[in-house]
């Protein structure tokens, strides 16, 4: 098996007396498309923030492309794209100013892709020059996705990237993810509660429960295994059934 891009060894994280991550082990390998699932408050955002080194852990280690996440080189940082759950855009800038700012930070920036996404996702001249603070939640989420895709990341971490998008926005985003990102061999970790979206893009599913990855595997294998255990059932088992079974 190829060397993991992300290697998480026994990380823990408490908030006050609340344990959130508890000796968690996880590996992400090149080219994997992993859907990260768990109940509200299970710790998905915390895990993704620790994975990226944005949040300190209480113990354990995280390595990305072989480097300790606490000391990532600029070259490695430039290979990673991140769409956070809560907008972290510079809301006093306009979309155009913000994208120009990020373009200057990255050694590689795909102008053609950024311009095509801006045009396809409704960022006309007027909207590109409006302060980000005045954009709607969904418009900010689209912009956050465009910013993350600009440097053509090799590892893309998405924390509920479609939660504010309308159905057309979600479809456009999934199409971009499937055609523009995954086909180029990008490794993707994607947390969401919209299971139908996940079924369209994710090949692997990982469940976070009690501070650990309790189950991970190919979506089809997990469904097949759960069907086998359930014996004869009138209805085919869905990812929703599996989610309920695994996370309760
Ligand atoms: N900065 C913080 N201070 C205190 N508690 C926190 C903090 N951040 C998260 N938590 C707690 O840690 C737990 C995990 O939160 P997290 O946001 O990682 O969950 P999640 O799985 O992403 O949830 P959701 O599906 O609702 O987005 C929650 O109980 C939350 O209240």
From TrEMBL:
Short name of one Pfam family: ABC_tran
PROSITE patterns assigned to the protein according to its UniProt record, in alphabetical order: ABC_TRANSPORTER_1 (PS00211), ABC_TRANSPORTER_2 (PS50893)
UniProt GO MF annotations: ATP binding
Ranges where the ABC transporter domain occurs: 6-235
Secretion signal span: none
Protein name as it appears in the record: ABC transporter ATP-binding protein
Keywords: ATP-binding, Cell membrane, Membrane, Nucleotide-binding, Transport
Domain of life of the organism encoding this protein: Bacteria
């Amino acid at each position: 098996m190829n060397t993991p891009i992300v290697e998480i060894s026994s990380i823990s994280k408490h908030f006050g007396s609340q344990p959130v991550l508890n000796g968690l082990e996880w590996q992400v390998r090149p080219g994997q498309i992993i859907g990260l699932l768990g109940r509200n408050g299970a710790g998905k955002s915390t895990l993704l923030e620790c994975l990226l080194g944005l949040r300190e852990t209480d113990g354990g280690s995280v390595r990305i492309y072989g480097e300790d996440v606490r000391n990532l080189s600029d070259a490695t940082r430039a290979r990673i794209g991140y769409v956070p759950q809560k907008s972290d855009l510079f809301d006093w800038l306009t979309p155009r100013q913000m994208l120009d700012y990020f373009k200057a930070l990255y050694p590689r920036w795909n102008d053609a892709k950024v311009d095509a996404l801006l045009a396809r996702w409704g960022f006309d001249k007027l909207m590109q020059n409006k302060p980000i603070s005045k954009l709607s939640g969904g418009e900010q989420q689209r912009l956050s996705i465009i910013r993350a895709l600009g440097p053509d990341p090799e590892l893309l971490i998405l924390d509920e990237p479609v939660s504010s998008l309308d159905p057309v926005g979600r479809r456009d985003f999934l199409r971009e993810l499937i055609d523009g990102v995954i086909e180029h061999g990008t490794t993707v970790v994607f947390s969401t509660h919209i299971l139908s979206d996940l079924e369209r893009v994710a090949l692997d599913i990982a469940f976070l429960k009690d501070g650990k990855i309790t189950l991970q595997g190919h979506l089809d294998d997990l469904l097949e295994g759960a069907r086998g255990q359930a014996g004869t059932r009138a209805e085919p088992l869905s990812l929703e059934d599996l989610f309920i079974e695994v996370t309760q």
